[in-house]
Write a structure and sequence with these properties.
Layout: H1 2-10, E1 36-38, E2 54-58, H2 66-70, E3 81-84, E4 89-95, E5 106-111, E6 123-129, E7 138-145, E8 148-154, E9 162-172, E10 175-178, E11 187-190, H3 205-213, E12 216-223, E13 226-233, H4 241-251, H5 262-272, E14 282-284, H6 303-312, E15 316-319, H7 321-335, E16 339-349, E17 356-361, E18 375-387, E19 398-403, E20 409-410, E21 413-414, E22 416-420, H8 421-426, H9 435-443, E23 445-451, E24 457-463, E25 470-474, E26 481-483, H10 485-488, H11 495-506, E27 525-531, E28 540-548, E29 554-565, E30 571-584, E31 588-596, H12 598-601, E32 610-619, E33 625-633, E34 640-644, E35 653-660, E36 667-676, E37 680-690, E38 695-702, E39 708-718, E40 721-732
Parallel strand pairs: 3-11, 6-7, 14-15, 17-23
Antiparallel strand pairs: 1-10, 2-4, 4-8, 5-6, 5-9, 7-8, 9-10, 9-11, 12-13, 16-18, 16-25, 18-19, 19-22, 20-21, 23-24, 25-26, 27-28, 28-31, 29-30, 29-32, 32-33, 34-35, 35-38, 36-37, 36-39, 39-40
């Protein structure tokens, strides 16, 4: 400590006229605390050894000891004491002689940061009393034996989250004697979802086990018609992760006095987890070129990303929405805020927040890509964090949307939330933070319009159901999918849904009316299309069906456009164009197949392997246009993981990862990754080439650290093939 102190002393920040002390926004920095604080001149012959003196302090900080067991912190791979606020913990103090309460007086001091102040909660003196009041700082003696006393200490249920330094102070007639600085007695204090007075209190034990203690999760991706899932290692208990998460709050320069408030912590974290405007944790890249970095699809979890950032202090390359959300989830769970990762299928990215995505068609009914600026993401991931919202009216606490993917600025920075899910559902978008943006992501309409020769804009179709069709998260205690769409919106077309929309518009969400543009929907012909399941490297077909509900004969000039898209809905290029004329008999349905050959799409594939089809048809007899769009995702091969031999804590075990190349081309510069929280840190292996149809086998040996059901997660990555995953649950026995 003396080293850091001396450098800090040299760099004393200049005082300004506005505050008596510089801002206290670093948990890392410390101040000098005097071991002897005299009340005046010390008399000659004063010998501190004549008074009560602390010989040793026992923190009971091992994972199997009472503190970490009772505070649900025994999984943290960290040698120091970690407790949750608002709940008592035990320490033992050994003195040089028996403690005499009548004459001896001592107290505890907890300090955090460089400029501790009592009124800011950064300097906490605790006197020993007779009773502990729930949720308030206090200490009482529970046991005395020889020269030792056992103390039960209660922390405040609103106390700052972070790493505190502990001193024991003894009163003497001539001054205060303190223990010397000892990092072994440092105490981490975290949020406590088990404590009723804590702002993050969650009353269901199964939910606490899932949303705070589970260190692996599932990311749902793909597309609404073809949902895919992959595991993600949150690893919030792994070595140095807690320190890395506390560092993020230092990086964001959040005042220490604000670090007891989950609302403030979530808001600054949603900004610092992306690198835009503050050199935060992850640099986003959506352009399919990941030179000098790791492709977003290659990460298997958050640990590597957080540790790399903690050591380099430079943004880690690269991430996309599920990576931002995975790392954010680790941060929240690590600090004790219940959190879950959410996927919204068909998510609106609306450039002018008017609850309307505009797709402009040309004369033939094809989408005009030059003037169409809005996009529909196949899916978008964000997080929900659980907390009370004392800053909002009653009823808006509970799950809050927080999103670290940089999409739009909020109060001048790329961040989003916390925004109450309940407020979004009811259209109360006036409540902070960023509710209109989230409301639009799940509720926008898609409007297809065409400009006539005379400049009039004709709306051809309004699709009110496409956006936010399905919002999901991992189920509690299992690997299945839980549909939470009803938490965000009422039933499409219901009275409540219309009321929520009117409320949102009243509170300032812009909604253009269709009155100012001509709109007569097509009523007598319906069109739909289906895309056959697509296996990577195979041909497939798209089937377009028309239903003529009238007694007229119609012909429909039909256009199909197949595009390779980023999962954000932005087009890279068109790989398939097909036009035909469809004859529609009265009162009948007709189906038309369009075949797509693998040679048409393979050379241009992007890492999400996602296709987007637009089908538009003009009824020649009436001039009406039908329009529809759908995304589809390729079936990608998976990795196979197998274990050999026994699986026991502390004994070496062996795992093999296998993969067969299904493509008609050799894969080059392939990277494999394997990780598992509590089992092994991420291992990487490079392979120069994998020829067509050949199988790669990689054997890894490691020593598991934790007993119980653990998960291994693997990924394969190369330029021609991404999003290849495999996973395996393994039961590790105790010794």
């Amino acid at each position: 400590m003396s080293e850091t102190m001396s450098t800090n002393e040299q760099k004393k920040p200049p005082l300004n006229g506005r505050r008596a002390l510089p801002s206290n926004n670093s948990n890392e920095e410390e101040n000098e605390v005097p071991e002897m604080e005299p009340f005046g001149l010390l008399p000659r012959g004063f010998n501190p050894k004549d008074y009560l003196r602390v010989v040793d302090i026992h923190m009971f900080k091992d994972p199997h000891e009472t503190n970490k067991q009772q505070h649900h912190t025994d999984k943290y791979y960290n040698p120091k004491l970690i407790v949750r606020r608002g709940q008592p913990f035990q320490i033992q103090i050994d003195f040089n002689r028996p403690y005499k309460p009548e004459t001896d007086q001592f107290w505890l001091e907890y300090l955090i940061g460089r400029y501790p102040q009592q009124n800011k909660g950064t300097y906490i003196p605790i006197l020993v009393g007779d009773v502990l009041k729930p949720g308030e700082w206090g200490a009482k003696i529970t046991h005395k034996e020889n020269n030792s006393i056992r103390l039960s200490i209660m922390s405040s249920a609103t106390c700052i989250i972070g790493k505190f330094r502990l001193y024991v102070a003894v009163w003497t007639p001539f001054g205060i004697l303190r223990t010397h600085r000892d990092s072994a007695t440092d105490t981490y204090i975290l949020f406590n979802p088990w404590c009723q007075q804590d702002a993050v209190y969650l009353d269901d034990e199964k939910e606490r086990e899932e949303y705070v203690l589970n260190d692996v999760g599932i990311v749902f991706h793909g597309d609404i018609n073809d949902i895919k899932l992959r595991s993600w290692s949150y690893g919030q208990f792994e070595e140095n992760i807690l320190d890395a998460c506390l560092f993020l709050m230092d990086k964001a320069e959040l005042e220490l006095s604000g670090r007891g408030n989950p609302i403030k912590i979530c808001r600054v974290a949603s900004a610092v987890i992306n690198s835009r405007d503050d050199n935060g944790v992850i640099a986003g890249s959506w352009d399919n070129t990941y030179t000098y970095g790791v492709a977003p699809s290659a990460w298997t979890g958050s640990v590597d990303i957080l540790l790399e950032y903690y050591s380099s202090k430079q943004p880690v390359r690269y991430g996309q929405c599920w990576v931002f959300a995975g790392v954010f989830n680790t941060f929240l769970r690590c600090l004790g805020i219940p959190a879950r990762l959410i996927t919204n299928y068909s998510s609106a990215h609306d450039n002018n927040a008017n609850l309307q995505l505009d797709f402009f068609l040309d004369d033939e009914g094809k989408v005009d890509t030059k003037i169409t600026k809005d996009s529909v993401w196949n899916y978008h991931c964000w997080n929900e964090a659980w907390m009370t919202r004392p800053d909002l009216p009653v009823g808006f606490g509970g799950w809050q949307v927080v999103d670290a993917t940089p999409q739009e600025t909020s109060d001048g920075m790329y961040r989003c939330g916390p925004s109450s899910v309940q407020a979004i559902k009811h259209g109360h978008v006036c409540f902070q933070f960023d509710a209109p943006f989230v409301y639009a992501e799940v509720n926008s309409d898609i409007v297809y319009s065409r400009r006539e020769k005379n400049g009039a804009q004709v709306i051809e179709k309004i699709d009110t159901n496409h956006i936010g069709q399905l919002i999901v998260t991992k189920e509690v205690g299992g690997n299945g999918m839980m549909d939470i769409t009803a938490e965000y919106k009422f039933q499409e077309g219901s009275e409540e849904e219309r009321l929520a929309l009117e409320t949102a518009v009243m509170y300032g969400v812009k909604k253009q009316t269709t009155q100012d543009t001509a709109y007569q929907p097509q009523r007598d012909v319906d069109m739909d299309f289906q895309v056959q399941k697509v296996v990577l490297g195979n041909d497939f077909k798209v089937t377009i069906t028309f239903r003529n509900k009238s007694d007229n004969y119609y012909t429909a000039a039909t256009h199909l456009s197949g595009n390779i898209v980023f999962y954000t809905g932005v087009t890279k290029n068109e790989f398939k164009k097909h036009s035909f004329s469809a004859k529609l008999e009265p009162f009948s349905s007709s189906a038309f197949d369009v075949v797509v050959k693998s040679s048409e799409y393979l050379s241009d594939l992007l890492d999400q392997a996602s296709f987007h089809f637009f089908v538009t048809a003009r009824i020649n007899e009436t001039g009406k246009i039908l329009a529809m769009q759908k995304a589809t995702v390729l079936e990608i091969p998976t990795l196979r993981i197998k274990t050999q031999g026994g699986m026991v804590v502390g004994k070496e075990m062996s795992v093999t990862v296998e993969f067969t190349n299904p493509l008609k081309q050799t894969l080059e510069n392939v990277t494999l990754r394997l990780e598992g929280p509590g089992l092994l840190r991420t291992m990487k292996k490079e392979f120069r080439q994998i020829p067509t149809n050949s199988t790669l086998i990689w054997e890894v040996k490691f020593i598991p650290k934790r007993p119980g059901l653990q998960k291994l997660i693997a990924s394969l990555n190369c330029d021609a093939l991404r999003h290849v995953y495999g996973e395996l649950d393994v039961q590790i026995q105790k010794l």
